[in-house]
Amino acid sequence: MTWKTDTHTGWGRVHSTTGELARPERQSALLRLTETITAPAIGMRRSYGDAPLNSDGRAIDMTRLDRIISFDPEAGLLEAEAGVQIGVLADVLAPQGWLPAVMPGTGFATLGGCIANDVHGKNHHIDGSFGDHVESITILLAGGQRKILTPGRNKDLFRATIGGLGQTGVILSAKLRLKPCVGDVIMVTEQRAADFDAFISLLDNSRATYSVGWIDATAQGNALGRGILEEAETGAGLVPAPKRAKSVPFNAPGWALASPIVKLFNALYYRRVPKTGRTLVKPIGDFFFPLDAIHNWNRLYGKLGFHQFQCVLPVDRKDDLREVLDLIARSGLASPLAVLKRMGPDVGDQPAGMMSFPQEGYTLAVDFRNRPGAEILIHRLEEMTADAGGRVYLAKDSLARETRIKSMYPEHATWCDIVNKADPEGDLKTDLIRRLDLRTAQ
What we know:
Layout: E1 4-9, E2 16-22, H1 27-33, E3 41-42, E4 58-61, E5 68-72, E6 77-81, H2 86-93, E7 98-100, H3 111-116, H4 124-127, E8 134-140, E9 146-149, H5 155-161, E10 170-180, E11 185-193, H6 196-205, E12 210-215, E13 227-235, E14 246-247, H7 259-271, E15 278-283, H8 284-288, E16 294-295, E17 306-314, H9 318-331, E18 334-343, E19 361-369, H10 374-387, E20 391-392, H11 402-408, H12 412-422, H13 431-435
Parallel strand pairs: 2-4, 3-4, 14-16
Antiparallel strand pairs: 1-2, 5-6, 6-10, 7-10, 8-9, 8-10, 11-13, 11-15, 12-13, 12-18, 17-19, 17-20, 18-19
Helix pairs in contact: 9-10
């Protein structure tokens, strides 16, 4: 096993680093590698900021450790290595009547990454987060010890690992409880919402298994908060041909996402859905992972990259959400990619992980091209989120400040104690952990 110097970035391409990467192809090679070296594990680097970066250090690329270890089609249980991609699992499982219970917005996310960030999907209001469906995790601790974690065995370490940003050890594999699906197509109903109140009403009253809203983050005045809600259920039938993948071959010029162009695009996109709504049949991947059909879509933001801000605000803070949307719209900095979803209460008696992002309420995600004004705006949005009792999603963050982040996560101090015992030398720290000083209790 050799280490190779590599320059890489998070998906937003604002932060980059040069360091040494190892790419083991078998767990045996990984175990030999970690006999003398402890380094953080990374996957497809789809976290937007600096979570997958370790500046001037080493990291273990887990993407070649992507094998399915076992699958029980009767019980709906699957065990796989940490490097397997969620989209691959969906493709393999859907024809057999199963899906990963929770899927993020990209199928390129790895199993290990989904656990380390406790990702959520378009069904959080019903099924909770990814960690709620993890039966067990096999992890390699900093000292080289291999340990199995479950909700009842090594419980504290299990909860510190889910959403724990890779700070407890290298996730080798995990066993998941799957979700039954009717077939490998999905029936999608689209409805227009003319303003904020209409959008929130649609979200609150939706009974669909999957729901997600595109929101026009440039709309102001009476149109503030307008958008399109998609509700979906899996189905069986003739599978439409998936969209042919396209690629963005170069960095887009700065004017491509200028405010007038974004406003025009959003107005046209909003009107593509009739006032009466419509229902479509799509391949499963087209609904769950819409942007995966455009390879290197992050180049649309230009060579300087972009920031994504994602927050969740409590369900009783709708007025604060309205103010957040108003500030974004007045800034003129938003891109066409803005998503609003409803999050439900914890599935169990507590969050899946100590540092899990989801809480009951409304989660908003908006992209901003990396240009003057974006950082100031995002810091203000961060303040508003903290004041409203909400949280910022660390898998998307590239700018947050440590004092606010720590106060957003009530179990942070307990998590610090556990991870510092699991990795006393701090060998698993990444740029995100250092930037936010996350392993120091407030």
